[in-house]
Amino acid sequence: MLYLSEILLQNPQLETFDELMALVKERSKSEIFFRIDVKPQFGDTPENWEDRLEAMFT
Questions:
Q1: What angle do helix axes 17-27 and 49-57 make, rounded to 10 degrees?
Q2: Of 50, 56, 42, 53, nearest to 13 (Cα)?
Q3: In whole angstroms, what is the distance from residue 30 CA to residue 38 CA?
Q4: Which residues pair with 35 in a beta bridge?
Q5: pLDDT for position 8
Q6: How far, rounded to the nearest angstrom, does the alpha carbon of residue 29 sit from its chain's CA centroid?
Q7: What secondary structure letter does DSSP report for 38?
Q8: Which one, out of 10, 24, 39, 53, has a CA that is 20 to 30 A from the CA of 46?
Q9: Nearest-CA neighbor of 3 among 55, 48, 53, 52?
Q10: Which among 56, 57, 55 has a CA at the least distance from the CA of 30?
Q11: Band of pLDDT at residue 5, cut at 50, 70 and 90
Q12: Each residue's pLDDT tens digit, 10-47
């Protein structure tokens, strides 16, 4: 299972929500489940961030 907090902790170089989305898409190739357990604290995080990350994973 892939946790959002795990992605954020393992990749402190991420600076934007778009970079995070690209990484989620990449990691979706090797994972089956995705759990959103924290809110990303980027300045460009949109209001519908959960929906966008889930869509990127699937």
A1: 30
A2: 42
A3: 21
A4: 3
A5: 97
A6: 13
A7: S
A8: 10
A9: 53
A10: 57
A11: very high
A12: 999 999 999 999 999 999 999 999 999 999 999 999 99
